[in-house]
Amino acid sequence: MYSFEVTASQKALKPDGQINGPGWSRRPFWDYSRKDIKASPLRIKEWDYYAVYSHKHRFWITTTFSDLGYLGLFAIAFVDISRGSWTQVDKITSFPLGKYHLPPHSKDHEIAMSSNILRIACSRKEERRRILCGAPGLKAEGHNEGLDADITCIQTEGHESINILTSWESNRKAFYLNEKVNCMRVSGTVRLGEEVYELTPDESVAVLDWGRGRWTYQNRWYWASASTFIDSVPVGFNFGYGFSDRTDVTENAIFYDNILHKIDRVSFEIPSDSYTDPWKITSNDKRVDLTFIPVVDRNTQSNFLIIKSVQHQVFGHFSGSLVLDDNTTVQVDNMPGFAEDVFNRY
Hints:
Elements: E1 10-11, E2 23-25, E3 30-31, E4 44-54, E5 59-67, E6 71-80, E7 85-94, E8 109-114, E9 119-125, E10 128-135, E11 147-154, E12 162-168, E13 171-192, E14 195-199, E15 204-214, E16 218-230, E17 233-241, E18 253-256, E19 259-262, E20 266-269, E21 279-283, E22 288-304, E23 307-323, E24 329-345
Parallel strand pairs: 1-3
Antiparallel strand pairs: 2-12, 4-5, 4-15, 5-6, 6-7, 8-9, 9-10, 10-11, 11-13, 12-13, 13-14, 13-15, 16-17, 16-24, 17-18, 18-19, 20-21, 21-22, 22-23, 23-24
């Protein structure tokens, strides 16, 4: 079931615009270029999303830097687990069409944008990823106005990630190239109003969602991610489905001490009447058995007829068991993370 592992560099797309075969890998082996895509620039989607969590201070900071063809979406969110609250500042631009120059790979790079309400700059130099962001008007509950953050995430040479390349059954020239990096250790500072919080690598962790592709018009996906330390060992997971054809390849993986342990298929049992009631996440290979206890539903909706988005990114804690490749069972208790149900039409 894991026979589609890619272990060497190759181009993501063939000359006709179709993917060079579906696959998954432990490192970002695919060579991607916007000019290889056989589609209007309006259909190309590119994004870098970071989520940083401080166990000590019990808050999340997330940044979104994206070029979605029709629009650019840039956002900074602060999620306070202690208070069960969240706030966000975002900026939408029209028809960016590649002008923000998101990198074609997750190697060394620099990207930045600024406006009167927020600024985001992300860079990578070897093992260090740096996030600089600020939103002078962001008002978090219990704090004065303003957020500034200077955060460095470390991804060492041996730190594995889950990478996938898939297409859609309805259109094989539509594709999804993605890397998820869990359990990056973090250092830096976050200022909320006049208060400054120190983030240290023994208690703070970050996740990166790096994506490039050409989507179909309407999609719904499910994604869950968590990272923590158990007896000082980094432990995390990435689970997702519903987005593109996952017949041959899944993005499901457990990370233990930064080594990837591949999981087959997962399913989310989400309560029908409330996203803040407990969820259940299991896998068909019996290696995942988790209960998710929500704390904050970061719920955003927009509807402009041909463009519609309904997003529930729910932050909370996971408890249960994860089974590694050697059949070792890892028990997790109140592991911080998030799970989401997202519908997009654009």
